[in-house]
Amino acid sequence: NYVKTHDHDLVPHKGFKLINGTHDPDDVDQIYNLEIRDSDVFVVTYPKSGTIWMQQIVLLLEAKGDLTAISKLSKNSNADLIPWIEVNGNRETFINAPSPRMRVSHLPFQFMPSALSQKKGKVIYVARNPKDVIVSYFYFHKLANMLETPKDFDDFFEKFMRGNVFGCSWFEHIKMWHSHQDDMNMLFITYEEMIQDLHSVVERIALFLGKELTDEQMANVVKHSTFNNMKKIPQANYEQVPGELLSHHQGRFMRKGTIGDWKNHFTVAQNEMFDEVFHREMADIPLVFIWDI
Ligand code: A3P
Known about the structure:
Blueprint: E1 10-13, E2 16-19, H1 25-30, E3 41-45, H2 51-62, H3 67-73, H4 90-95, E4 102-105, E5 122-127, H5 130-143, H6 153-161, H7 170-179, E6 186-190, H8 191-196, H9 198-209, H10 215-223, H11 227-231, H12 268-281
Parallel strand pairs: 3-4, 3-5, 5-6
Antiparallel strand pairs: 1-2
The chain binds adenosine-3'-5'-diphosphate.
């Protein structure tokens, strides 16, 4: 008999939606003016696109593949070391934190520090095919107490397509970030590339971040960031995050980790409707997604 302990209202804010209790609108507004150092790294994603996967890789690159070093430092989860910039209280701790300051964010482009667009700091944007994002996000709404549990998949599909979810619609998020990528020091990666060739993606990230690792250290980064290994690392799997935030009996962060699970959830009609919207919305965005393998 499970009762949600959190207020999970979405709060409209300047055309976007924040989560009541998790985000403070005034605080989020001040993120735009943050001073950015060249050594700052932001991992930016639409939710469920591989955020904690990239968190794990960036941490491992910093620690030269030494998993024990990270596990000792992160008490509850990897978010202790790479927190969400937009979550209550995190903006303040960012300001005076020692370099390198590494943060993740789901915020739409318009809210992020404007200095990023003057080529200060670095941004790693991870995109995932949005059909799989919908499925992953559906299950995450059951796990996360700050989000309202959908009635069923159809209910969630509708909410997602209307953009009635935290932040903004998937289309808006990717279009804004993608179209501004040349203004920033940005590395654009897809979840599907990571699934297909993790080693070469990790090499690209290392190059982008200016990290020089030996072949053995590099192999360790890859080894400790595979789905099966991350599943066994409590901090990477967010297992020790308090039950009031995540209902661990309802699911796991490391759920399935594949391409194409949408095929097990979408009806033919939903798929047709989605394709139509996708082609219309993404007509000017030169992005090709892998939907299936
Ligand atoms: P699924 O729900 O489809 O399994 P985020 O971190 O942005 O919330 O994204 C979570 C999604 O990334 C989940 O997708 C999770 O399983 C997947 N994921 C996390 N680490 C992964 C890894 N090492 N390999 C493959 N998928 C991973």
